[in-house]
Write a structure and sequence with these properties.
Elements (H helix, E strand, L loop, with lengths): L1 E6 L20 H21 L4 E6 L16 E4 L23 E5 L21 E6 L2 E2 L2 H11 L4 E7 H11 L3 E10 L2 E3 L3 H16 L14 E7 L2 H7 L6 E2 L4 E6 L2 H17 L6
Parallel strand pairs: 1-2, 1-4, 2-3, 4-7, 7-8
Antiparallel strand pairs: 5-6, 5-10, 8-9, 10-12, 11-12
The protein binds zinc ion.
Length: about 280
């Protein structure tokens, strides 16, 4: 079995603050150790469950966090930004041109605006206030899983805090979800034993591969509509310059396409345009 693994950082046990998520910040190196340990635990469990190969896509921030020398030897690593499908780039290519059997989302976090999810955001914190797909607010999980579904890659396993796991069930159905910490607020969490978390991830990965009925493959409607509420109107001013984008009001824009992969890329483009209007003072 060939497994695709998209790895984010905010949903790792031990991580709860931006001083841990940005390269150069004081707690970043510590967070990286935890991130590698969680990915390697998942790989070990999946190997016991019958997996044979892994492609890992670094999906956090500038996507240059994971180090190949610190990953399980059976893994290949996709690093760096910009990538055409961002957090799910490479999934469409398969492993040595053989399609992936399923995907894992590890270290994921709750969507923008969640009441108490640790480090909640959707793709672009401080730029995307809310992202709706076909009328429903979705997080990175829903957005990424919809694209994977168009590549015929189901999601078999997700991990993050309790708020994230609940949202993953809302967005994907009854996929195997490993809770690694309990959110108290956006910047605080109750953290169980890290050794215990690694065990849970290992067991979850092994179990998920034997439970194909719980794999989630939900193809988005064609056409699909995306509606994004930007953080401020200047960001919506920039976004509406793109053809096909409708300005709904001060902050909200929407766009529609029959090919979800185009819609997904438009969402990434709107993020880049929005970032260009970010004002550090105002
Ligand atoms: Zn993220």
């Amino acid at each position: 079995m060939h497994i695709y693994i998209s790895v984010d950082l905010e949903g790792t046990n031990g991580v709860l603050h931006s001083s841990q998520t940005q390269p150069g910040e004081s707690q970043y190196e510590r967070a990286l150790k935890l991130m590698h340990a969680e990915v390697n635990a998942v790989i070990e469990g999946a190997l016991q469950g019958g997996a044979t190969s892994f492609v890992i896509n670094d999906s956090h921030f500038d996507m240059r966090n994971l180090r190949i020398e610190d990953l399980h030897p059976s893994a290949r690593l996709i690093s760096g930004w910009q990538k055409p499908f961002s957090m799910v780039s490479g999934a469409q290519q398969g492993f040595s041109d053989k399609p992936f059997d399923c995907a894992f989302f590890i270290g994921y976090h709750s969507r923008a605006g969640s009441a108490c999810g640790v480090l909640s955001h959707t793709y672009r914190s401080q730029i995307f206030f809310d992202v709706k797909l076909n009328g429903h607010s979705v997080g990175e999980t829903g957005l990424n899983a919809a694209l994977l579904a168009t590549f015929n890659v189901p999601v078999a396993l997700v991990s993050g805090d309790d708020v994230y796991c609940q949202q993953a069930h809302e967005e994907l159905g009854k996929v195997t979800a490993v809770q690694v910490k309990r959110a108290i607020s956006r910047y605080s969490a109750e953290q169980p034993s890290f050794a215990g978390t690694l065990n849970l991830l290992k067991q979850g990965a092994e179990k998920s591969l034997g439970d194909k009925k719980s794999w989630s493959l939900k193809k988005p409607a064609s056409p699909s509509t995306m509606e994004i509420t930007m953080f401020d109107p200047a960001m919506a001013d920039a976004a509406e310059l793109m053809p096909g984008i409708t300005r709904l009001d001060g902050r909200r824009i929407s766009f529609e396409h029959e090919d979800y992969s185009v819609l997904f890329k438009m969402m990434l483009g709107v993020g880049v345009l929005g970032a260009s209007r970010k004002d550090p003072y105002f």
